[in-house]
Task: structure prediction
Amino acid sequence: MWKFIQNTNSFFGKNGYLLVASAWLFTLSFIIENYWSGNSTPKSVQHEVQRDIYKNQKKIEAFVKDTALLNDIIDGDYDEKDLDALVDKKFFVFIYRITPFENPDPVFWNTQIIEPDSTILSDPDGMTFKGLKNGWYVVNKKSYEKTDVSLYSIVGLIPVKWNYYVENKYLRNSFTAIDKIEDSYTIASRPTRLGIKDASGKTIFYLERLNKITVAHNNIFSLWLRILAAILVLSFVHKLAKFYVRKEGFWAGLAVLLFCVVSLRTLSYFLPIPLNFQQLELFDPKIYGSNSVLKSLGDLLINSLLFIWIVLFIRFHFRDISSGLSFDTKLRKSTAVVILSIIMIGITIICGNIVRSLVSDSQISFDVINFFSINNIYSVVGFLVLCCVATGYFFLIQILLQPVKNEIKPKSYVLYLSIS
Result:
């Protein structure tokens, strides 16, 4: 016993770095999520939205001061490079020729998404905040006079938040500065503590935090750090199971592996361990959902990978003892054959139901004849799940058949009768 404790201490001394590294990755993920992420706190959201407006406001002012470019645009003397540079910007520019007693005549615009309404064109120069047909914009209006005394009005629109009547996959009522905060924040209709100021320090609009339950979204760097930390923990579990196989035998090692994997996976259903899976589209039950265990395609993928991992672990270590596995009485042999046959039948039914459910309970295309219908990530993940289930099933049945064959030689027909 004392020797085993010493060996255990030695194992943790050699492999404990995996847990330490995992803990540091989780800590770094927490720091990034709560202090560096743009949507971690109301103040950081306020700062990011304000910073995005500052940046675009400076670009608009630099554009207005570039008189050579302005004159070329007004005269229609610009090349494709200049046009592409304007179209790629995150703000919209409109130039109107102003003639007394006539409506403003549009000379140039760099977008088809929106256009200024009549109130913006009649407003004096300056910075305002307006709600237009498809969203909320910071409006920067400037007058410009050419050398020939002709007068022009330059209108810059900085999108802040989209507001479409109908949302879909491509049109989302989101903020332009920060992704995926529209469920937590909106444009306020009254003054709040989250005021957004322009470059001159004038408050132009306010943000309001919504009191509704939302799914927490991790920063992309935080997300990958958590995934890497989880891989390190699973690597430690694998090494621990192999250690118990060497010191205590196959069954002890398998018990350790199953206990750790099942415990961690069960916790992940109720707690955000290692992350909140609901934030990922792969875990959307609209794509696939079968039951409380296989709630989504992402859950099915995780369970399939864990299944093939455990099966490969069994296959690698069980082969060393399967040849010596035998039963001394005829009753025990018969009982073992019946039990193993029932287990094989149960595994076949479960794996068959998973494959059937993946086709019937999902929106995933497996039409291999029509290649373009399967050209998406969900079909790729679906095929990966099928590979894991099929491979794991094959190896597991192969493992279970080996001791049965050893007991019924040369009467192989007993096996077929038992399974049938």
